[in-house]
Amino acid sequence: MEIYLNGKTTAVTPECSLFGLITELGLNPDTVIAELNRDIVPSSQFETTILKPGDALELLHLVGGG
Questions:
Q1: What is the pLDDT of residues 8-27, one digit of tens each?
Q2: Which of 35, 36, 46, 58 qualifies as a cystine partner to 19, CB 3.0-4.6 A?
Q3: 26 by DSSP, 3-state: which?
Q4: What's the predicted TM-score (pTM) here?
Q5: Cα(41)–Cα(39) distance, integer angstroms
Q6: Looking at the domain assignment, is residue 66 inside a domain?
Q7: In the structure, what pLDDT confidence band is assigned to residue 66 with cuts at 50, 70 and 90?
Q8: Strand-strand pairing, 56-61 and 39-41
Q9: What is the number of domains present in the chain?
């Protein structure tokens, strides 16, 4: 199935959770902010949020530095 990830069409497995996608992308869920269809998804809901065809997902990955 296809979703829009950071503005680009991306194929993901059907019934994929937000947590599954984040980890599949090699990101640490503890440092990711997710906006799904213009709503912020709390990290406590990543595992229970199932992506649907056509969803618009924006992921921001926080990076520390100095």
A1: 999 999 999 999 999 999 99
A2: 46
A3: coil
A4: 0.90
A5: 6
A6: no
A7: low
A8: unpaired
A9: 1
